Amino acid sequence: MSHDTSYTPPLEEPTDPRGPLPPTPDTRAPEMRTATGAEASKDPNARAQQGDYLTTAVGRRVPDTDHSLRAGDRGPTLLQDHHLREKITHFDHERIPERVVHARGTGAHGTFTAYGSAESITRAAFLKKGVETPVFLRFSTVLGSRGSADTPRDTRGFAVKFYTSEGNFDLVGNNIPVFFIQDGIKFPDIVHAAKPEPDREIPQAASAHDTFWDFVSLHTEAQHHTLWNMSDRGLPLSLRTMEGFGVHTFRVIDEAGATKLVKWHWKPKAGVHSTLWEEAQLIMGGDPDLQRRDLYDAIEGGHLPQWELGVQVFDDTEDQMFSGIDLLDPTKLVPEELAPVQPVGLLTLDANPTNFFAEVEQVMFNPGHLVPGIDVVNDALLQARLFSYVDTQITRLGGPNFQQLPINRPHVDVNDNQRDGFHQHAVHAGVAPYRPNSLGAGNPFPAPAEQGGFVDHPAVVAASQTVRAVPASFADHYSQARMFYRSMTPVEKDHIVSAYTFELGKCTVPVVRERQLQCLANIDADLCAAVAKGLGLPAPEATEKVADVEPSPALSQVGKPFPVDGRKVGIVCDEQSDDATVTALVKAVEKASMVPFVVGPHGGQVGSVEVDKTFATARSVEFDAIVLAGQIAPAPDAVPSYDARNGDQAALGTQTDPRIALMLGEAFRHCKAIGAVSAEAITSAGLPADAKGVVVADGAAIIDQVAELLTLHRVWDRYPTVSK
Ligand code: HDD
What we know:
alpha+beta; 20 strands; 24% helix; binds CIS-heme D hydroxychlorin gamma-spirolactone; oxidoreductase; hydrogen peroxide
């Protein structure tokens, strides 16, 4: 577009956007031209498919998409077939590079509603009382490829994009509050060590290999995060039952310019729960998408996942220490007992993506996407991230215009003077994408703080020599790892011991195992001894003097009751089950806000009840509790054909259908609540009917008791460590 000749530019650059000057093309938002015109371009989906007929990419209708154009039906294919070439060319380029880390993930849309409790510490508009802000949340594992499974032992990403009235704010966190490294310059090292080994590219999505343990045992600041990974936190039950953490300390600034330091926390309303390692392994084989499916189904089923956002607040002191903890050290957390988490708002996930690629794959996050009232601190890990998250998109999303993708666009006006580049979709008008200008009437104008401008906090940088070093307070690599371990219950400690024993048992280089044992000796002698025993190695003595820190019970997941909304109950029935009982159980589960799944010996109906899953398609690990709605005898015609996985009935020594005996045996071993309408149904499967967490009652009355047990997630009293 040529510039507007009716407008005579002034001699000086205009300074007032509301002055007498007429608006010029540069003052309008860029247009997105589509085949259906500029109006439709306001709809972010306007470029998606439309019309009733199949067309080429430029709208020519296509009569046949199944046969290429050939010189006779047995002859060669002709190059002139535009539709063939276009179809194949586009297909050939459908994949983009997966994320270098956090490649496997899923996401959902939601709404964040602020309580207003943060108004006293930050001027951020989205935290003012009652303000509702649309969000997009992407969960991820870190190590695995895009096609890997949902339940490896790993850290989980917890990245939230707030489309605020002041631009996008991204809180790009994890489900673990500390990180492996204190300086972002080490990020390629930890990732190279943890990813599949470069010669054979194994193992996929796993830290149980030599290079990972080689690195973390040498680079001992990683030990605290590693311990979290070896704990139940490395195996979240579902995406709905994970905490999220901003990890770094951030600075918040109020209306008057006063500052505080904060750490961000996401607390799931459904509680913090985990799988057991055996369950996680079974899931990876049986349904590697289970957590993705669970999130999707929960949202579709109206069991909307919720998290409360909270902050720990600290004075913005010169030394940026709190209770002896360096707030700039991302390998340290601040125990909630010392600084309680104060809730500031509620996030509800309420809509699934429409298109996985367009939204989940193309979304990008950046810890540098800040809004007025929130700023960064001199955490060397965070500072490196501020560079990395923009840079990586240039390759991953193919150029500098990734912010124009619908999922990444802010919900406010954009007037950034950025032009051109690969995949430029905007049709910018005007001639003056630069400042200062008079030809564009001075537009766009710099916004001072009163106009919502993000004014960098005038942080005082101490006069100092340039140096490649960390402060002395960063040298303590073990005291918080020790605190974490000693804050665990016996069950959780047992899981940690098993995890280290498994992971180090997978290492093939003796010195790697030995060196990691040495690190464990510095964390806790009992932990070290137990792992050493499992590995058949001597337990070394500690080499470092490590401070004993008061345990933090808030770090443990066990023994804290939570609502059971959305938890999954398998109601197992067979031809002998009473229809009325099954129906009553289903209703009772729904009434308790949980999700019932009728599991039967075959598809279709059992009696008059519709079956959701069959003995062939369901595995115990999909359910939080199992209820037997009948005797569950083996189907007379089915016994000879049971597959090898289930064994045969005689070998299992039960009078129950072996597939159910397997399901019950697993649920029992995994400390899940089990209900039955008769004690015989339990005992004939070879399990004690009077064991803790096994409920025998009439019909729907079982469900109340099962729900009660589920508030504590599992029946840990049955766990061998506890019961022995
Ligand atoms: Fe990172 C992705 C979280 C340190 C470089 N990171 C990524 C994602 C999450 C985190 C949740 C996935 C975002 C998505 O869903 O698209 N990363 C963290 C946390 C860290 C952290 C909590 C420490 C506290 N990251 C970190 C460092 C660097 C990176 C130190 C580099 C210096 N992270 C990246 C990246 C990724 C990424 C390479 C890969 C894909 C992407 O950014 O968009 O730039």
